[in-house]
Amino acid sequence: MRISRYFRAATAALALLSAGPLSAQEKESIRLGAILSTTGGLASLGLAERDGVLLAQKVLNARGGIKGHSIEIVVEDDSSNPDAAMSKINTLIHSENVKAVIGPTGIAQTVAVGALTQREEIPLLAFTGMGPAVEASRTCVLHLTPAQGLNARALLSYVRDNGGKTVGVLHDSGYGQVIWGVMKDLGEEFGVTFTAVEKFELSAADATAQAAKVKASEPDMVIVLSSNATGFRNLRQVGLTQPIVSVHGTALYDVVRAMGDASDNVVYAEFLIAEDPLPNQTEFVAEFQKEYGRLPKHFEAAGWDAVMAVAAALEKTGPEPAGGALCEALRGPYPGAFGKYDFSAPDMGGLTLEAFSYSLLTKGAFSRLPYHAK
């Protein structure tokens, strides 16, 4: 029995040798990890990011992968929870032996996970802008969306340049609170007076009282800082007719549908207007439509960019990069579908005001505005 087993093994080895180099299909795959919030409070973002990630994987493999190696992405859900994200990152690094990690979706998860990936010199391509000061020293943690200060400036630039002098602000207690924390100190710089600032809980289904106070302050425009449709609906329900300006976090088709009749006369500082894509976005939009039968927005584009940026870096380093080599290969300009990145910039993302596109929501449809922030 033993001789027979050894004979079969030797015969198989000789067959492999005589067959020559492994084909692309036979080469070992390159494994990447992804930690995304596909359930919990950030699920609308995490699911969009996942669609972009998986599309990039499919397209890359259809093109032959990286130097003949296919890409395999191990996707983990952190349930929008930093503790869960830490459990998932340990699995990806120590059990799955991934070369890079895509995500997380949320800031708290990114800060927690980034401490470990930085130490291990494994690239982390997070769907967040740079947050706490500790992230400034993490040169192996790259950021695929703008820091909140840049979001605030993009909104106030539009208000200032379009005649807004007085502004009401309605923000939620999560994402909106973070942006308002920066925006509140920028009024004088942009020549804007905040007439009323009202907060509602992130989980609230109604913010009518807060919306009424914002309307009563009679602003020229209203800025909504939120990740859901509640504020938009309530502002229109109390009779607000002034333009609403908002962030890319709510420039999403799901949020627009949830607005109902309020999905009109809203201006967004965003990144991907799929109805009218920029030249650097047309390939992604076409591939997404072909795969999913619908138009994408910027979070899907960020998922695509994360995988494509890692693939471009692996083309430089080869499929088995030495410690820190993949991080080094990623640090530099990358022309993404979300925007033009520079991962060597101090904020490890390099997005600027020029990366923003401005859209007008009219009865649920997005159209590109000619405005460009400076």
Task: Explain how this protein is built.
The chain is an alpha/beta fold and 374 residues long. The protein has helices spanning 2-19, 43-62, 82-94, 107-120, 148-161, 175-183, 187-190, 208-216, 230-237, 253-259, 282-292, 298-317, 325-330; strands at residues 30-36, 71-77, 101-102, 124-126, 141-143, 166-172, 193-200, 221-225, 244-247, 266-270, 333-335, 340-342, 357-362, 365-368. A 7-stranded mixed β-sheet has the order 7-6-8-9-10-13-14. Strands 2-1-3-4-5 form a 5-stranded parallel β-sheet, sandwiched between helices. Strand 8 (221-225), helix 9 and strand 9 form a beta-alpha-beta unit. Mean pLDDT is 92; it is low at 1-24.
Give the helix/strand layout:
Elements: H1 2-19, E1 30-36, H2 43-62, E2 71-77, H3 82-94, E3 101-102, H4 107-120, E4 124-126, E5 141-143, H5 148-161, E6 166-172, H6 175-183, H7 187-190, E7 193-200, H8 208-216, E8 221-225, H9 230-237, E9 244-247, H10 253-259, E10 266-270, H11 282-292, H12 298-317, H13 325-330, E11 333-335, E12 340-342, E13 357-362, E14 365-368
Parallel strand pairs: 1-2, 1-3, 3-4, 4-5, 6-7, 6-8, 8-9, 9-10
Antiparallel strand pairs: 10-13, 11-12, 13-14
Helix pairs in contact: 2-12, 3-4, 5-6, 8-9
